[in-house]
TrEMBL record:
This is Purine nucleoside phosphorylase. The keyword Transmembrane helix does not apply. It catalyses: a purine 2'-deoxy-D-ribonucleoside + phosphate = a purine nucleobase + 2-deoxy-alpha-D-ribose 1-phosphate. Pathway: Purine metabolism; purine nucleoside salvage. Keywords: Glycosyltransferase, Transferase.
Length: 281
């Protein structure tokens, strides 16, 4: 690493370390490695979304996560341990594409989970697109169906917001961006995403609980990142890819292989959706 910035990422959970300082350090390294002083839009690619960014535009630079303060290698099969700087068509704008995320179940703490979001904000992004693979509670959503997130229920019992900072989450998932996504794909439905801690899948009883409290989608990511994005002032678009029917909705057993296969089968639709939405922002 040729950056002269002090690396303060040894332990994001250390209360003596300012996580926003680490994000600024990371953004400086990204700017140096990509040759772009700023990026405009960030995308976090969840399970099943790995190839979607290829349709956004030309990848101008690729950076290994391990070379950037606060980041680590991918811990989940189907995720990429790199971040890419992608040209958004011929607009002159750049997208910062994260090929993986830190999941809460990895045990690295909430600061690590939302570090990518804070880095995106420090890199100049005003919008972030959060994607994931999830279980669907609506039998009409076959595996491979993308669904807009209109709201969420956070069952992790944690928040990335520290101290007496009272962040309004009323319109957390920006309505204007959801409308834009529906202009691109008129068949898009929307629902409420429920985050469990994981890494085990939900039991049928837990899925029914999620349904009773208003959930339509269940998964193990996204809500903490979305809260951090709102704290940073970012507009948020959340899109889930239904990779399987949730436990008890279908009589089939759940597997990560099914998640990856659903992503492969839906790659073109998801890629086109992301490319056109990002191009219109």
């Amino acid at each position: 690493m040729t950056s002269s910035h002090r690396d303060v990422s040894a332990d994001l959970d250390d209360p003596a370390i300012d996580p926003f300082d680490v994000a600024r350090q990371a953004a400086a390294v990204i700017a140096e490695r990509t040759g772009a002083p700023r990026h405009d839009v960030a995308l976090v690619l969840g399970s099943g979304w790995g190839h979607a960014a290829d349709l956004i535009g030309e990848t101008l630079a690729t950076v290994d996560n391990a070379d950037v303060p606060g980041f680590s290698a991918a811990a989940v099969e189907g995720h990429s341990g790199t971040m890419r700087s992608v040209a958004i068509g011929d607009t002159g704008r750049r997208a910062l594409v994260f090929g993986t995320r830190t999941h809460f179940y990895e045990g690295r703490g909430v600061r690590a989970v939302v570090h990518g979001v804070r880095t995106a904000a420090a890199a100049g992004c005003s919008t972030i697109v959060l994607t994931n693979g999830c279980g669907g509670l609506n039998p009409a959503w076959a595996p491979g169906t993308p669904v807009l997130i209109r709201d969420h229920i956070n069952l992790t019992a944690h928040s990335p917001v520290e101290g007496a900072n009272f962040v309004d989450l009323t319109d957390l998932y920006t309505p204007r961006l959801r409308d834009l996504a529906r202009e691109v794909d008129h068949e898009l439905d929307e629902g409420v995403y429920v985050q469990f801690r994981g890494p085990h899948y939900e039991t049928p009883a837990e899925v029914q609980m999620a349904k009773v409290i208003g959930g339509d989608l269940v998964g193990m990511s996204t809500t903490l990142e979305a809260i951090a994005a709102r704290q940073c002032g970012l507009d948020v678009l959340g899109i889930s890819l239904v990779t399987n029917l949730a436990a008890g909705i279908s009589d089939q057993p759940l597997s990560h292989a099914e998640v990856l296969e659903a992503g492969r089968s839906a790659a073109w639709r998801c890629g086109r959706l992301l490319a056109e939405v990002v191009g219109r922002l």
